[in-house]
Amino acid sequence: MNFKAKIYIKDKSLPFYKKMDNSEQLQWISISFALILLLILSNTENNIENIFESILKNIIYVCLGLFLISVIMRFGEYEKLNGKLEGEISFEKDGIKINNQLFEFNQINDFNIEFSDKYGSQTGKSNGAFLSQGLKNSISFYHNGKLIITYFQLYSSEQLEAIKKDLFFIITNELIIFKKKYLNLVDKKYKNTTDYLFFIEKMKKESKLS
Length: 210
Hints:
The protein is of the alpha+beta class. Helix content is 38%, strand content 21%. A seven-stranded antiparallel β-sheet has the order 4-3-2-1-7-6-5, covered by helices on one side. The radius of gyration is 26 Å and the shape is elongated. The model has no long low-confidence stretch (mean pLDDT 92).
């Protein structure tokens, strides 16, 4: 087996504002100050000195400038970790190893995996960091009736290819009890191979694709 990755552990204790990316924090702070100052100006415009009014306007311009900086800044920014990378998950010949514990394939049920988020890919967020840390990946399954969920970081293209290769081997060799939905986990580049076509024929004969 080829796949190995660092385990990602979310810090659920962080308040929402600490979870924000740096550009997102700057954006909200600058807009909030600008709106507050605009509100002050609109309510006291006739009762304040020209110098004070000019200072407030200049601060508003600075806030708007910081907002524009935050918009530009996000395109080169990686999202916050908001947790830690600790331990390792890997596919072994007999099962899935999470840190030092091996979960044997023949004892795993309802296997699911998400692996679409790679380090440096786009986050898809409308604000905040534009670049991903590759943390929105997970493996989940039931083992002895207990749900096991592990998040992991995909840092490189090599790791992504390793997952695809290992999944193809695991599924076509029925290391995990076969379910039709697992065919969706097989990468399209493997679907024209002789091994895959033979496997599909075998599943048809065993009426496992109906």
